[in-house]
Design a protein that fits this description.
Shape: elongated
Number of strands: 10
Strand content: 5-15%
CATH class of the largest domain: Mainly Alpha
CATH architecture of the largest domain: Up-down Bundle
Radius of gyration: 35 Å
CATH superfamily of the largest domain: ABC transporter type 1, transmembrane domain
Oligomer: single chain
């Protein structure tokens, strides 16, 4: 990106921040600006007071004016301090509010994003953007709002006072200001690049930590502790180097600013002192001018610091807005209706679908799931079974020219996703439990449920007995992803959640494939209770679990190759019969000692 493009992009980011997030705080901002103007005027007034004190009171020995002028000085300093305090408090509140709104919008956008988005962006990267990037923005916005406006107004006011006092000295003195501006600009570009690299590394660091903590069992099992320490340690080292580089860029401003300020001060002493000695100006005028220059140079140094902070903030904003500007692929149409089910049927009509890789996952799939019936999808891995299930609640959409998915005769793309998903309950192989109590996990799909309803759901899911035997019963916390429970217990909690939801359509995605025989038997019994009176679509790896299904569809390479009952498919001698025979042989194979 060229320099002009970077400047244009930065301007667009600032404009967006101002228009979208700062505009609603207009009244508070106006009050803050008024207080900043008062603080600026009092700062400029100090230079005028110094000249008056030296030339009118001290030089002319006006004893009677010493106490009154001291009172005026006290009032000016007090008024300036109060105005600066008030503006800082208001601007800090506005800045914190702006960043809070951005963080809230970002979180809402991420929650509404579709599954494809999360497959493209690791969780650690997203967490980094919502924490590290937002924190950079928070600091940058608060710092810039509390310092930039006040310091800019003070600088303008003091330069005006300097030209009013002596325009020749002013022209000589203010040459340093554009030099400082050029220096600040170049340093800001370097800081922006370093900040962007730092944020990328922070995202990678969060991603690595997330992977490490989630897979710690396997890390220990394979003895990979040293490898993980080195992998994460390398990222930590890169973060250290970037942080140190950023500090060096920031710290160099202090000596450079001091040097740039020393040159005109030396000139003022030489030239101004000669003017005073020659009688062409007064000591008070020179003192006031030097005070005004030093006071004006202080905002320059603070603005330089703010510029570096702003560059980090803009870099963070760029990354965060990239998330906000990525629209979800699954969105409700403007005319989307609320789905009301009277006949809970599911139908796929010649559905085609491809993931981002472009390779077709489904090629003309047609499936009928009658109301109140149990239909199974079976087939080898990669056949497209889970893809079919994901299309029904609109986790993905079929290709534009790839047929339709119908629920109760209504195209799922023509109804709101909220109403569509409210009619369904999902139990999958990968049980999603939160680090909360068993009671809260069961009630997750129906927060308004009473305790009696939750216990009844646990009874129906054959989970009540083991829950009662836990030390704290339903108040027991299950740990992250339910780590404190066994696989069968986690599945029964998930079934209880689905049972409590009471949806007319039930989707089962290999809900028992990872369980041992005893746990599978208990969970299958619970699933039988859950499926009563509902339309059930089940994906099964173990064909023995679906022999009683009303209808079985056999899939292979994205197509339906067979359909019928278990008995019919066995008689046909096709793929289903071969798969069933292979699994039966595996079950009968004697254990190896």
């Amino acid at each position: 990106m060229s320099q002009a493009d970077r400047q244009s992009h930065s301007f667009v980011l600032l404009k967006r921040l101002l228009r979208t997030y700062l505009a609603p705080h207009g009244r508070e901002l106006s009050l803050a600006v008024l207080l900043m103007v008062i603080a600026s005027v009092t700062t400029s007034g100090k230079a005028v007071l110094i000249r008056y004190i030296f030339d009118e009171i001290f030089a002319k020995k006006q004893q009677e004016w010493i106490l009154p002028i001291a009172g005026v000085v006290f009032v000016v300093f007090l008024l300036g301090g109060l105005a600066a305090y008030g503006s800082s408090i208001i601007l800090n509140r506005i800045g914190q509010g702006v960043v809070t709104d951005i963080q809230r919008d970002s979180l809402a956008h991420l929650i509404d994003a579709d599954l494809a988005f999360f497959h493209e962006h690791p969780a650690g990267e997203l967490i980094s953007r919502l924490t590290n990037d937002v924190e950079e923005m928070r600091y940058a916005i608060v710092e810039s709002m509390t310092n930039s406006g006040t310091n800019t107004l003070r600088l303008v006011g003091l330069i005006g006072i300097m030209f009013w006092m002596d325009w020749r000295l002013s022209v000589f003195s203010v040459i340093v200001f554009p030099l400082a501006g050029i220096w600040v600009g170049r340093r800001g570009k370097r800081m922006r690049r370093v900040s962007n690299s730092t944020q990328v590394e922070r995202g990678q660091f969060a991603h690595l930590l997330n992977q490490t903590f989630q897979n710690v069992r396997h890390i220990k099992a394979y003895g990979m502790e040293a490898y993980e320490k080195k992998r994460v340690g390398d990222t930590i080292q890169r973060l250290f180097m970037l942080a140190h580089k950023g500090f060096r860029i920031s710290a160099i401003s202090e000596p450079v600013n001091e040097l740039l300020g020393a040159i005109p001060v030396c000139g003022l002493i030489i030239y101004g002192g000669s003017e005073v000695i020659a009688g062409r100006t007064t000591t008070g005028a020179l003192m006031a001018f030097i005070f005004a220059f030093l006071s004006a140079y202080e905002p320059i140094k603070r603005l330089a610091k703010t510029s570096a902070v702003m560059q980090r903030g803009l870099s963070a904003a760029d990354r965060l807005f990239a998330v906000l500007d990525d629209p979800p692929a699954i969105r409700d149409r403007p005319d989307a209706a609320t789905l009301t089910i009277t006949n809970p049927t599911i139908r796929l009509e010649n559905v085609r679908f491809s993931y981002s890789t472009g390779k077709p996952a489904l090629e003309g799939v047609s499936i009928d799931v009658p109301a109140g019936k149990t239909v199974a999808l079976v087939g080898p891995s990669g056949a497209g079974k889970s893809t079919v299930l994901s299309l029904i609640p609109r986790f993905y959409d079929a290709d534009e020219t790839g047929g339709a998915v119908l629920v109760d005769g209504q195209d799922v793309r023509s109804v709101t996703t909220k109403s569509l998903r409210s009619q369904m309950a999902l139990v999958s192989q990968e049980v999603a439990l939160f680090d909360d109590t068993i009671l809260s996990n069961i009630a997750y799909g129906k927060p308004s449920a009473t305790e009696a309803e939750i216990i009844a759901a646990a009874e129906g899911a054959a989970a009540a007995d083991f829950i009662r035997n836990l030390p704290e019963g339903y108040a027991t916390r299950v740990g992250e992803n339910g780590v404190k429970l066994s696989g069968g217990q986690r599945q029964r909690i998930a079934i209880a959640r689905a049972l409590l939801r009471g949806a007319p359509i039930l989707l089962l995605d290999e809900a028992t494939s990872s369980l041992d025989a005893e746990s599978e038997r208990v969970v299958q019994e619970a699933l039988s209770v859950l499926g009563q009176g509902r339309t059930v679509l089940v994906i099964a790896h173990r064909l023995s679990t679906v022999v009683n299904a009303d209808l079985i569809y056999v899939m292979d390479r994205g197509r339906v190759v067979e359909s019928g009952t278990h008995a019919e498919l066995m008689r046909n001698g096709g793929l289903y019969s071969r798969l069933y025979g292979m699994q039966a042989a595996e079950r009968e194979m004697p254990a190896v000692a």
